[in-house]
Each structure stands twice: as structure tokens, then as C-alpha cells.
Design a protein that fits this description.
Elements: E1 14-18, H1 47-59, E2 64-68, H2 78-86, E3 93-98, H3 103-113, E4 117-121, H4 127-134, H5 139-151, E5 157-163, H6 172-181, E6 184-190, H7 199-204, H8 209-217, E7 222-224, E8 235-239, E9 245-249, E10 262-265, E11 270-272, E12 281-282, H9 290-303, H10 310-314
Parallel strand pairs: 1-2, 1-10, 2-3, 3-4, 4-5, 5-6, 6-9
Antiparallel strand pairs: 7-8, 8-9, 10-11, 11-12
The protein binds S-adenosylmethionine and iron/sulfur cluster (SF4).
S-adenosylmethionine (SAM) binds next to strand 3 and strand 5.
């Protein structure tokens, strides 16, 4: 049995690493417009620290990594970290989630360094709406990032699209057409109440059944697709005659906690056993001591809860435990 098995028998082989909590965008579902109190750079895990944590995790069975943030591409010299992570025995796969704004300039170096797959966040195909949702940045640069990622050989390229009621739900068909016409895997994601569960979330939360309805109305004949590499909790579909595919990630309406295989490492040095709850374990006191780092992973297994309760939150029911106050940008998604 793996060294990272929790009380519910779930084996963990996947670590999501947030390399910064800073970001060049301010997506309205992720970070407040004014930003948050960012971690001082002296309190960020250094590349040496991250490598130590991953070495300890790899000994216990971690084989897949995802580099995230904040926006990971604002962390200087990220490719140098990737090279080091790729060289750790047991690490087989290093994926990246990025908003794409800086990707065109870094895609080749990241691929050469050892990034195996990229997910690019894209919630709208309309440049004006992009400014409304992301509050900063430029859609054109994201599209250039997607093109460059394809040009340097990343495949499949996945697009993460958070669906927001009343904001981008009218673009579902446009995203489906994109997946039909291009070799892209579009992942529609439900809006989660991470670090905030206010009216903004409730008003804009959209269950993903609307995607299959939109596909039917648009005349696509869809069937379930299996074996999308690294598909994790995504329900994947393909459209008859289409080149790409799409996926549904519905943590709120139908959670996938039973098959959870992931841990998260925050930029300021905590292992979060669950995205939703407040519990976290600080790795900093254990740095420099491989056995102590392994013990932090073991503790994460001991305290990991059975599931989150986002659906209960939506229904205004009492929760059994305390949700985190971190925003998604401070955890890594
Ligand atoms: N900055 C990078 C990006 O946007 O891809 C990586 C970090 S971001 C926190 C990781 C993923 O979380 C993105 O795909 C983003 O859309 C998603 N995300 C952020 N806040 C969310 C929320 N409240 N509900 C659902 N997904 C969210
Ligand atoms: Fe930044 Fe990503 Fe959060 Fe948007 S979703 S604010 S790009 S961290």
C-alpha cells in the first residue's frame, strides 16, 4: 500500500504546488479587485524548499505534480525549478496551470525544462468581457499563449473555463464549437466558494447540466470519452465528428471526493489536505529534515477529511467543519 493512504483508503500520488500567490489578473471568482495581502517574498518557499518537499513526497508515492499559483509564470526562473523537479526520482509528470498571459514567451523553455502538459484558463472568447472577468490583462495575449503552447508541442492543451451564471453562460456553445473545430479539451468548471461564500458566489454559481443541454440544443451528438490523459475528476465527452473534446468538473453539484488523490502545497509553505477546509500543515519547521517532512505528509493523511461540503453551503445548511479563508489564488486551485 502507498505511504500516502488516508483514513478512507484513498491513495495520494498527486501534489499541486503553488509557486506564488501573486497574479497579473484579478479574476472576479478568485481574487478581490484590490488583491489580497500577498506573501512577502522572504516568506515564500524557495526553490530549494520546494524540491525538498517534493523529494519527501516522492519517497512516499507522489509521482504527479501540477505547478500553479497565483499565476505561476510571474515567479522568476520557473523553468529552473521545473528542471530540478523533473530530476527527482519517482516524479513522472509535471503539469502546469496558467492564465496564459505570459505563456507565449515561456512555453518553449518550460517544455524543454520538463513540463509535460498545460492547462490554460480561459473564461470568455470576447475581449471586452475578458476585461470584465479578469479585470486586467488582454485576451489577445492568452490566445497567443495557446498558439505558442501548441507550436512547441504541448498536447493535449486543456482550457479551463469557470462557468458563471449571467456572465459567460451564453458562451457555452462558442466554447463547444472551439472544441469541435480545434484539438483542444475544454473543461467547464463549476464556480466554487473558496475563501468566500457570499451572494456573489450564489448568484453566479451555475450547475454544469447546462453544458449538456447547450450541446443538445446546438445539435452536437455527444458521447462519453475515456482516457483523456490526466483527466482527474473531469467527466469527459466528445462530439461526433469533432476534433477536440470537453469535460465537466462539478465539485459542487456532484463532488468527486471519493476518488481524491491530491494534496496541495501553498506558496507560503502549507500542505492543505482539502481545498475547502481550514486545516493545513506548515512544512517550514520540517525543512532540512527529510524524516520530519515525511511526517508532515503522514499527518496530512491522518487529518484529511472524507469530503468537502460545498453543496451544503449552497443549500444554506450547517457545515460540520470550518472552511478556509484562503482565496483560490492563495491555494492554487
Ligand atoms: N493563475 C492560474 C490560472 O488562472 O490558471 C493558476 C491558478 S488558478 C487559482 C487555478 C484554477 O482555479 C484556474 O483554472 C481558475 O479558473 C480556477 N479557479 C479560481 N477560482 C475559482 C473558483 N472560485 N471556482 C472555480 N475555479 C476557480
Ligand atoms: Fe489569477 Fe488564476 Fe486567480 Fe485569475 S484564476 S486571479 S489568473 S490566480
Amino acid at each position: 500500500m502507498s505511504g500516502l493512504t488516508d483514513r478512507w483508503g484513498r491513495v495520494h500520488d498527486y501534489l499541486r504546488i503553488s509557486v506564488t500567490d501573486r497574479c497579473n489578473l484579478r479574476c472576479l471568482y478568485c481574487m478581490p479587485e484590490e488583491g489580497v495581502a500577498f506573501t512577502e517574498s522572504s516568506n515564500l518557499l524557495s526553490f530549494d524548499d520546494i524540491v525538498q518537499v517534493v523529494e519527501a513526497g516522492a519517497k512516499l508515492g507522489i509521482s504527479k505534480l501540477r505547478i500553479t499559483g497565483g499565476e505561476p509564470l510571474v515567479r522568476a526562473n520557473l523553468d529552473q525549478l521545473i528542471v530540478r523537479l523533473a530530476g527527482i526520482p519517482g516524479i513522472e509528470d509535471i503539469a502546469l496551470t496558467t492564465n496564459g498571459v505570459l505563456l507565449a514567451g515561456q512555453a518553449a523553455a518550460l517544455r524543454a525544462a520538463g513540463v509535460t502538459r498545460v492547462n490554460i484558463s480561459l473564461d470568455t472568447l470576447d475581449p471586452v468581457r475578458f476585461k470584465f472577468i479578469a479585470r486586467r490583462g488582454d485576451l489577445k495575449r492568452v490566445m497567443e499563449g495557446i498558439e505558442e503552447a501548441a507550436r512547441v508541442g504541448f498536447s493535449p492543451i486543456k482550457l479551463n473555463c469557470v462557468l458563471l451564471k449571467g456572465i459567460n453562460e451564453d458562451e457555452i456553445t462558442d466554447f463547444l464549437r472551439l472544441a469541435y473545430e480545434q484539438p483542444l479539451h475544454v473543461r467547464f468548471i463549476e464556480y466554487m466558494p473558496i475563501g468566500h461564500a457570499d451572494d456573489n458566489w450564489k448568484n453566479h454559481y451555475l450547475p454544469l447540466t447546462s453544458v449538456l443541454d447547450a450541446a443538445a440544443v446546438a445539435g452536437y451528438s455527444v458521447q462519453r470519452k475515456h482516457n483523456v490523459k490526466g483527466n482527474g475528476p473531469s467527466d469527459d465527452w466528445e462530439m461526433e465528428g469533432g476534433i477536440g473534446s470537453f469535460g465537466l468538473i462539478h465539485p459542487v453539484s456532484d463532488h468527486f471526493c471519493k476518488s481524491c488523490n491530491r494534496l496541495r502545497l501553498t506558496a507560503d509553505g502549507s500542505i492543505n489536505p482539502c481545498l475547502y477546509w481550514v486545516d493545513e500543515l506548515n512544512v517550514k519547521p520540517a525543512l532540512g529534515d527529510a524524516a520530519a517532512l515525511e511526517a508532515v505528509f503522514a499527518k496530512a493523511m491522518a487529518v484529511k477529511p472524507e469530503n468537502h461540503e460545498m453543496a451544503a453551503k449552497l443549500a444554506d445548511e450547517a457545515l460540520t467543519h470550518v472552511p478556509t479563508e484562503r482565496r483560490m489564488s492563495q491555494i492554487g486551485g
